[in-house]
Specification:
membrane, transmembrane helix, globular, transmembrane, 11 helices, 274 residues
């Protein structure tokens, strides 16, 4: 079907706004918080919503089931980027992107060969989250210091990357099966452009911090994809999207409070033993 121009403009505006917001959080709050929010259902929500709007809620529902497992490929992308992006500047971005995309494509090819259910897709990504959290435990936390605000070049790059990825995913969904559409919807639409800009402006160390904390934020994405897979056909795209964000936010708030409680308990432990 022909996609109305208003829908295309909406995708453009939302994609750009989300990426810029993440970049501002990294500079003004912390890269740790930005890493957690990179796992919030921002890019995935945009992709699944417009897939449902442009094709059908039923197709978006089937895609969302495969998205649950597709987050494992997203984790592989982060791992590949971290492994290869050891240098600062453009060489580091190019090497990290190459490593990340190879890892993402390899895992995606495996995932699309499996007929996932909601349960098996969720369990697959949960196992991947546990693996990557363990692998990243020795990665140091590095803050991103301010570098003088946004330049027109940075704004243009952010806009091009975010919009281009969204348009590519939703466009390919028209000609590909639901399994591939779902895996593509799990692609880090907001995180990848954010990583590129952060890497170019602040170097490889803050990027490693974002990637380190990304798996912990994926729980909200899992909650979102699971919720919309149950609500899109029954209640419609708008209500399903709203319900997905409510569930994802509840999970993220619960997770951050549990982390704070665990950190406080670890801090008290040495004094208790003395």
């Amino acid at each position: 079907m022909d996609v109305p121009l208003s829908w295309q403009l909406a995708k453009l505006v939302v994609s750009i706004g989300v990426v810029l917001g993440l970049s501002m959080i990294a500079e003004r709050v912390s890269t740790r918080v930005a890493g957690l929010l990179s796992g919030y259902p921002l890019g995935t929500a945009i992709a699944l919503f417009f897939i449902g709007l442009e094709i059908s809620p039923a197709f978006a529902t089937q895609s969302a089931v495969h998205t649950l497992a597709g987050f494992s490929a997203t984790l592989a992308l982060g791992g590949g980027y971290l492994l290869c992006a050891r240098r600062d500047g453009l060489p580091g971005v190019l090497a990290g992107s190459a490593g990340g995309f190879v890892a993402w494509l390899g895992v995606s090819l495996l995932l699309t060969q499996v007929e996932f259910t909601r349960l098996t897709g969720t369990l697959t990504t949960l196992a991947a989250i546990a693996l990557f959290i363990r692998l990243y435990r020795r990665v140091p936390d590095t803050a991103a210091g301010p570098r003088g605000g946004f330049s027109w070049a940075a704004l243009g790059l952010r806009a091009a990357l975010a919009a281009g990825i969204i348009f590519l995913i939703t466009g390919l969904a028209h000609v590909m099966p639901a399994a591939w559409a779902g895996v593509m919807a799990a692609f880090p639409v907001t995180m990848y452009p954010f990583l590129v800009i952060l890497h170019l402006t602040h170097g490889a160390a803050p990027v490693a911090t974002v990637i380190k904390h990304y798996p912990a934020g994926l729980g909200s994405l899992l909650c979102y994809a699971l919720c919309v897979s149950l609500t899109y056909e029954r209640f419609g795209l708008l209500a399903g999207t709203l319900a997905g964000f409510v569930v994802a936010t509840a999970w993220l708030l619960t997770w951050t409070r549990l982390q704070a409680w665990f950190a406080a308990r670890q801090t008290r432990s040495p004094s208790t033993g003395t």
